[in-house]
Amino acid sequence: MARTAVFGGSFNPIHYGHLLLADEVLEALALDLVLFVPAAVPPHKSPACLAPAADRYEMVKRATARHPRFAVSDIELRRAGPSYTVDTLEALRIPRDDLFLIVGSETFLDFLTWREPRRVAELARIVVVPRVGSAFDPESAAAQKVVREVGAEPLIVRVTSLPISASDLRRRVREGRSIAYRLPDAVAAHIRARGLYRDGGA
């Protein structure tokens, strides 16, 4: 079975920070595949600033197309209701020894607010990527509380952090400013062609 990491998110839009993170985790853990899973209805995000799910999926497809060990799944777009990670991991049917779940350090500290967090940890090995400059301490009381509740220690992978954020990219589009060199040209072309992020949102 291929060693696979699931990298979920709204990808609103996907950018080079996401892609570099995925490539470095792939290398650090000797993975065979990073599977990008755009959320159709992210449970923890307001839909107000989200581009349509089909557009976010298309942008991820374009962004990952040339990487031999990146793939994208529409599994959450095909499922009705909120995009819960536990449902996605169950559906993938990959043995836990070969399945990894990439999360940011802030997300890990909020992990107990997820749907069935212990089951998520039973289905996949949790990979925590600390944000550069963040004060994330895996030995902190907050982090250890999550570990105790889910019954599994996370893998910590430190990667290069680019100073790019999806919210800044959306703001730049809205203000008519450049988004060059921050995301793949094919993604920028899709944003322009579809008129995404021009009105409102954060």
What does it look like?
This protein is of the alpha/beta class. It has one domain (4-163): HUPs (Rossmann fold, 3-Layer(aba) Sandwich), CATH 3.40.50.620. 37% of the residues lie in helices and 14% in strands. The chain has helices spanning 16-28, 53-64, 85-92, 105-109, 117-123, 141-150, 166-174, 185-194, and strands at residues 4-9, 33-38, 70-72, 99-104, 125-129, 155-156. Helix 2 links the parallel strand 2 and strand 3. The chain is globular and about 45 Å long.
Number of helices: 8
N-to-C SSE series?
A: EHEHEHEHHEHEHH
Provide the helix percentage: 25-40%
CATH fold field value: Rossmann fold
Largest beta sheet: strand ordering: 3-2-1-4-5-6
CATH H-level homologous superfamily name? HUPs
Q: Characterize the main sheet.
A: 6 strands, parallel
Contiguous uncertain segments of 5+ residues: none
Gyration radius, in Å: 17 Å
Could you give a quick summary of the protein structure above?
It contains 8 helices and 6 strands. By secondary structure, the chain is an alpha/beta fold.
Features:
202 residues; alpha/beta; Rossmann fold; globular
What layout of secondary structure does this protein have?
Elements: E1 4-9, H1 16-28, E2 33-38, H2 53-64, E3 70-72, H3 85-92, E4 99-104, H4 105-109, H5 117-123, E5 125-129, H6 141-150, E6 155-156, H7 166-174, H8 185-194
Parallel strand pairs: 1-2, 1-4, 2-3, 4-5, 5-6
Helix pairs in contact: 2-8, 3-5
